[in-house]
Amino acid sequence: MDYLEIDGGCTLSGEIEISGAKNAALPLLAMSILCKGEVKICNLPSVADIKTMLLLLEDLGASYSYEDECATINTDSINKTEAKYDIVRKMRASILTLGPLLARFGECRVSLPGGCAIGQRPIDLHLKALELMGAEIEIKEGYVLASAKDGLKGATIIFDKVTVTGTENIVMAAALAKGETKIINAAKEPEVVQLCEILNDNGILIKGIGSDELIIHGRDRSLLEIEELSVIPDRIEAGSYLCAGAITNSTITLKKVNHSHLISIILKLQEMGYNFDLNEESITIKPSPKITPISIATTEYPGFPTDMQAQFMALSLIADGTSVIEERLFENR
């Protein structure tokens, strides 16, 4: 598809179901490396990154089947621990296999992820944390070479800045480490919370879920048994549809949505004049007689998400006055 042609200038109406969150699905797919037997992950979004992560798991030796937005994965057959550049270059989140592979097999070789169009997202925080857990790390010919022959050990880790994938990687590594791992300044995003809750429900004691300090009690390379789980709704997709309703001043309803994950977005839309009906798994946005300008500064969850900045910039174009949007997370966005 070279371009999208949009015939606009009309109001919207109706209902739409929100897909599973890609950024929650990817760490859950990587988490399957920590498991024995089959793991069924449902409500997967139909996006390229999901297919790439499944391809990476298959290249490592795992088997999987995919049907009706569900992937059934078995990592018992993994027979190598190298995440190749040809696959990793397609998706930065491939680095999420680093922690699980190292924790389970005691060694791995993972290609460095490619560049990022919206700014630098280095993995040095991941690597420093793994070194504190006893890993030997070397960067060679574009690959991270990691080794922990006697297994990873619990440690206290202080992240210098909030990192979502860094928190996820270390939580998964700590799950199979020996002893207790404490993560200070952990990310609090819903995607991180779901990963922790699933591990906690399946034999990994984790304290502080949802806070910026996590304590993980590892199982010393004892694999998990997880049968089936479902990915949380995509809060950015939901927020984008809410902005579409706001821009067209329409009444639309989102279904299969968790509005507790959307508080910062809903509050900003209410500040602009929009009203909502909130039910257990649905949100309805209603038209506003006057659209008020706003001030927004992007920040980590539970603050305003950087991935909603562009949508609100478009919405601000029809506000009655001057809006100010400040990007604080990515220098090139």
Helices and strands, in order, run as EHEHEEEHHEHEEEHEHEEEHEHEEEHE
Which sheet architecture does the biggest sheet show?
4 strands, mixed
- The residue-averaged pLDDT reads 94
Tell me the domain tally. 2
CATH class term of the largest domain: Alpha Beta
CATH superfamily of the largest domain: Enolpyruvate transferase domain
Distance between the termini: 24 Å
Strand order of the largest sheet: 1-14-16-15
> Fraction of residues in helices?
25-40%
User: Which assembly state applies to the chains in this document?
Assistant: single chain
Task: Fill in the CATH topology of the largest domain.
Answer: UDP-n-acetylglucosamine1-carboxyvinyl-transferase, Chain
Low-pLDDT ranges: 115-120
Strand content: 15-25%
Structural summary, described in words:
The protein is an alpha/beta fold. The radius of gyration is 21 Å and the shape is elongated. The chain has 2 domains: 13-18 and 234-326, UDP-n-acetylglucosamine1-carboxyvinyl-transferase, Chain; 22-230, UDP-n-acetylglucosamine1-carboxyvinyl-transferase, Chain (Alpha-beta prism), CATH 3.65.10.10. It has a 4-stranded mixed β-sheet, with helices on one face. A hairpin with a 2-residue loop joins strand 3 (63-67) and strand 4 (70-74). Helix 1 (22-31) packs parallel to helix 7, helix 5 packs parallel to helix 6 (164-175) and helix 6 packs parallel to helix 7 (190-201). The protein is built from 10 helices and 18 strands. The chain is 29% helix and 23% strand. The longest helix is centred in the N-terminal third of the chain and has 13 residues, at 48-60.
